[in-house]
Design a protein that fits this description.
The structure holds two protein chains of two kinds. By secondary structure, chain A is α+β, with helices and mostly antiparallel strands. Chain A folds into three domains: about 110 residues, DNA Polymerase III, Chain A, domain 2; about 120 residues, DNA Polymerase III, subunit A, domain 2 (DNA Polymerase III, Chain A, domain 2); about 120 residues, Roll (DNA Polymerase III, Chain A, domain 2), CATH 3.10.150.10. In chain A, the strands form three sheets. Chain A has a twelve-stranded antiparallel beta sheet with strand order 14-11-12-13-25-24-23-18-21-20-19-22. In chain A, α3 runs antiparallel to α4 and α5 packs antiparallel against α6. Chain B is an alpha+beta fold. Chain B contains 20 helices and 23 strands. In chain B, strands 1, 2, 3, 4, 5, 6, 7, 8 and 9 form a nine-stranded mixed beta sheet that branches. In chain B, a hairpin with a 3-residue loop joins β17 and β18. About 10% of the residues of chain B have low confidence. The chains are: A alpha+beta, B alpha+beta. β26 of chain A pairs antiparallel with β20 of chain B.
């Protein structure tokens, strides 16, 4: 293998794939990045067997070939190279990669590419086209609600369902759930559904840059894998087996109290309450007061702790229905409000022991449910 | 055999069996008589473990010549007049049986002289048969000389333990009385050798050394508390010093040694969560309370007593001990373990550096000086409480808050222990035990509201209730305890036979699988019998925390490690986990220097 690449491209490619490098594996080759010539471009791949990321960069290929280079060493080296062009030449017999860049000349010990786990070659024709910007927003609004606890693995995933021209992402961690819909440009022939690790989706939203228009999602039949492909990158993830709970049935259909308030003010109040609630059990008490004839309703948000003190913010709100006291984990509230893009948000409750629902006002596609905390007064 | 009235001698021998069962009982009865007589000096001489001679000499009030023959008669006493007197007894004796019983199973000589009598009177009794009184010359006070104990009850003689055991019993008994009456000079001479000599200057710690040895006596913590007529003083062992049985727990009520399981339980309660399972503290504690609050007439040797308001007394007892314990709870150093794990050589190194001095433990404590000025009155039983009742509560020694040292994280080793630097050396922290303690205190704090009343622990509702299926016995336990569970933040509802829905879990446990959390509780219910409600809650909480705490082998991020140390510092008893295992081991800089041979290597 004898190739020349631009240092800038190589560094960028390595930064994308290195997130999938497994640092603590018993398989030494998983700490390496595969570099291989591939149809006139250079392919960089890394995998930890659950998640694999591939990135293609432009290269001038004089001789085809492939090898795997130690990810950390190579990344550090490339980031310090100063000249534009990097020439790489592999000695196949010794698996030594010579890297030349300007005055710098390095020999890197590599591992034979044969040992690297084969990456699936997807059939792109079955792919589903999803708008990148939509997908990134959906992931941002849903993935944080997935569980980080491995006790119930299914909840560490995000369910992606496709039906007709509608895509739905949903996630829950036992105390809250997030559901977000979007439209597809073209309908899928058959409804499909898969549970994808939330971490993989977060990586996807990181590597799918805004410059790209669409990402292609492929669910190869019978492989328990999902592949997301853009022009220059590909992400492969194992799916999570199991039955995902039916979250939609957990969303309350009605409410007794509905408060409309400014998302920004609500978020700010929660952030302040959290400073104090942090010490305790992250309890934020909400007192939703229905307004009278002349004055608007209010929502009072309180956070307190034995040690640090007590914080209270009163926000004007348009309250429909009866007054309601309810307590939530303030972190859950803050994280949900963080991803609500509309200027106003609706908080719907039924009682202090039944779920609270957050809905962006004027945006039907997103709903977030938080279970209350039961506290004595 | 026809029914017949037993001869006098046989009857008194049977009765004597209740009171005098071994030589130590004779010593006890005679000692108590001397103490009741207001003696300031008592000498006890014992030969052949008491089988050939027990002689008790005192300088007390003495017995008038005319009453001497009455003193040895059954049911004759100067300490009681009427049945009502039984309920405010201020003397140790009152039954009028001791001397009669002793004289019926031995050859006894009593010599006594009151202060204003011209001469002493001597009376000799053999096997209950009273001889003639004769006038002799003797100093004021009484001498009781018991020879050939059990000579006429050979069966009893056969049942005595070995001489060594009986001697030891007498030693322990005399020492305990010495401890209870530090202002009485007490000498014990066994087979011509003095085994105990107290100065009568009121210094209890000196006597403690005779009881437990100097090393242990030095480590013992002082207890001193007064409240509403109740008084408690004495010594308890620090948590690092334990025994595998309750034998070293000595309890006195109004100057009277008692074996009260309830009081012992109250003492153990004070050590709750601080000692490992199966370990018991050492203690010598003296409880004083108004005489009418306690009924001592329930047991022939008065080893048992009944309290009128037992709940109040036990709670005072537990609280006072706990307070003293908390005030001086150190992290076990390496030498702290030596009492339990044999004698590692660390210990000797450390010992050399600190010469044992009597002042040292006192300095370390909120000093309650038992010296003459501050000492509570030497407790004439029955009178003291009146005076104590007026003593304002704030006179109690102020207990310094028992904070953990401020720790700087160094790192984690073996994915199980945190290494930290404190102001006085190196600390190794067991991450599981530490987290358990943190969770336990957080949960207990949530459980008790500001007024200390049990409240409801905040619960986090579950999105979907968790279904838990339990075997029948466990299911019944859960059904019985639903309201307790709700208090603890578990909202559980029955869902068909043997099945339950968990709708909410305590906030602190929200990271844990709800079903598993409930199962842990059920296991706990099964092991318990019928514990008190408050104990049950604490135990359940401890149990849950054990399950919820980070395990050994779990790698923690630097931030998590720091947070854990920080939380531990905030705990009230950060040095042990709720089950009594230590959370931290302290290696002092001094110890390290010694180990590296920087300072006077051995």
């Amino acid at each position: 293998m004898k190739i020349s690449v631009l240092q800038e491209n190589l560094a960028h490619g390595l930064s994308i794939v290195s997130r999938a490098v497994s640092s603590r594996s018993t398989l030494p080759v998983l700490a390496n990045v595969l570099i291989a010539t591939d149809e006139g471009r250079l392919r960089l791949s890394a995998t930890n067997l659950e998640l694999g990321i591939t990135c293609w960069i432009g290269a001038k290929i004089q001789e085809e070939g492939s090898t795997t280079v130690p990810a950390r060493t190579f990344t550090e080296l490339v980031s310090t190279l100063t000249d534009k062009q990097v020439d790489m030449n592999l000695n196949v017999r010794t698996q030594t990669l010579n890297v030349r860049c300007g005055a710098s000349n390095t020999d890197l010990k590599c591992i034979d590419a044969q040992e690297f786990p084969p990456m699936p070659v997807p059939d792109l024709s079955d792919g589903i086209q999803i708008n990148v910007a939509d997908l990134k927003e959906m992931i941002q609004q849903v993935a944080f609600a997935a569980s980080t606890d491995d006790a119930r693995p299914i909840l560490t995933g995000v369910q992606v369902s496709l039906n007709g021209n509608r895509i739905t992402l949903s996630a829950a961690d036992g105390f809250r759930l997030s559901v977000r819909h979007a439209e597809l440009s073209s309908a899928v022939p058959n409804p499909v559904s898969a549970v994808i690790p939330a971490r993989a989706l977060v990586e996807l939203s990181r590597i799918a840059t805004d410059g790209e228009q669409v990402v292609t999602m492929i669910l190869p039949p019978g492989r328990s894998q999902v592949i997301f492909r853009t022009r220059d990158t590909e992400l492969v993830s194992q799916l999570i087996d199991g039955v995902f709970p039916d979250l939609v049935q957990l969303i309350p259909k009605s409410y007794r109290t509905r408060a409309l308030l400014s998302t920004a003010s609500f978020l700010k109040a929660c952030k302040q309450a959290e400073i104090f609630a942090r010490e305790g059990s992250r309890i934020a008490r909400l007192n939703v007061q229905a307004g009278g004839e002349m004055q608007p309703g209010t929502v009072e948000i309180t956070g307190q702790s034995e040690e640090t003190g007590h914080n209270q913010t009163v926000i004007d709100a348009s309250v429909e229905g009866s007054s309601q006291m309810i307590a939530f984990n303030v972190r859950f509230l803050r994280e949900a409000l963080d991803v609500i893009k509309t200027p106003n948000v609706a908080l719907e409750t039924n009682s202090d022991t039944s779920p609270g629902v957050l809905r962006p006002v004027g945006e039907e596609s997103f709903v977030h449910v938080i279970m209350p905390m039961h506290v004595s007064n | 055999m026809p029914i017949q009235t037993l001869p006098q001698e046989v009857a008194s021998q049977i009765a004597a069996g209740e009171v005098v069962e071994r030589p130590a009982s004779v010593v006890k009865e005679l000692l108590e008589n001397s103490l009741d007589a207001g003696a300031s000096f008592i000498s006890v001489k014992v030969e052949e473990a008491g089988k050939s001679l027990i002689e008790v000499v005192d300088d007390g009030a003495g017995i008038p010549a005319g009453e001497l023959h009455l003193a040895v008669a059954r049911h004759a006493t100067s300490k009681l007049r009427s049945a009502e007197d039984l309920f405010h007894i201020s003397t140790l004796g009152f039954r009028g049986e001791a001397l009669a019983s002793i004289t019926s199973v031995s050859r006894t000589t009593i010599t006594s002289r009151t202060k204003d009598a011209a001469s002493a009177t001597r009376l000799r009794i053999e096997g209950g048969i009273v001889g003639e009184a004769s006038a002799v010359g003797a100093p004021p006070g009484t001498v009781v000389r018991v020879e050939d104990l059990f000579y006429n009850v050979p069966a009893r003689l056969k049942f005595l333990k070995s001489d060594v055991t009986e001697k030891r019993q007498i030693d322990i008994l005399a020492t305990r009385y010495a401890l209870a009456y530090p202002h009485v000079r007490l000498h014990l001479i066994q087979d011509g050798k003095p085994t105990l000599q107290t100065s009568g200057n009121g210094n209890q710690r000196e006597i403690l050394a005779a009881l437990y040895g100097a090393d242990i006596a030095r480590q013992m913590l002082e207890v001193y508390a007064q409240e509403e007529g109740l008084g408690l003083r004495g010594f308890i062992s620090p948590v690092a010093l334990t025994r595998s049985n309750r034998r070293e727990i000595t309890l006195f009520v109004n100057g009277r040694p008692v074996q009260d399981t309830a009081l012992t339980a109250a003492l153990l309660q004070a050590y709750h969560t601080l000692l490992m399972v199966g370990r018991y503290p050492l203690a010598a504690l003296f409880l004083s309370l108004p005489a009418e609050e306690v009924d001592v007439n329930v047991h022939p040797t008065k080893a048992e007593v009944r309290f009128r308001e037992s709940g109040k007394i036990f709670s005072f007892f537990t609280r006072s001990v706990r307070k003293a314990l908390m005030a001086a709870l150190p992290a076990p150093g390496m030498d702290g373990f030596s009492s339990e794990w044999g004698q590692p050589k660390w210990r000797n190194l450390d010992r050399d550096s600190a010469q044992p001095t009597w002042s040292e433990p006192l300095r370390r404590q909120p000093a309650v000086d038992w010296g003459e000025e501050n000492a509570p009155p030497p407790e004439p039983p029955g009178e003291a409480p009146v005076q104590e009742a007026q003593a304002p509560v704030f006179q109690q020694p102020r207990v310094p808050s028992l904070a953990a040292p401020i720790l700087r994280l160094v790192g984690q080793i073996a994915s199980a222990y945190l290494v930290a630097e404190g102001p006085d050396g190196l600390y190794l922290v067991d991450q599981h035990a530490a987290h358990e303690r943190v969770l336990y205190e957080k949960m207990m704090a949530q459980h008790l509201d500001a007024a200390g009343q049990p409240g409801k622990i905040p619960a986090q509702a579950l999105l979907q209730p968790a279904l838990v299926e339990l075997p029948a016995a466990a299911a019944r336990l859960v059904t019985e305890q639903l309201s307790l569970l709700e208090h603890l933040g578990f909202e559980v509802e029955p869902f068909g036979p043997g099945a339950f829905l968990v709708r909410a879990v305590p906030v602190l446990l929200s990271g844990m699988d709800a079903g598993a959390a409930l199962r842990v509780l059920v296991e706990d219910f099964e092991e318990d019998e019928t514990p008190l409600q408050s104990e049950l809650e604490a135990r359940v909480i401890a149990r849950v925390c054990k399950r919820a705490a980070v395990k050994a082998g779990q790698a923690l991020s630097a931030d998590e490690q720091r947070a854990l140390l920080h939380d531990l510092e905030a705990c009230q008893s950060p040095r042990t986990c709720p089950h009594g295992r230590p959370t931290m081991i302290h290696l002092s800089v001094d110890l390290l220097e010694r180990q590296f041979g920087r300072r006077g290597a051995r």
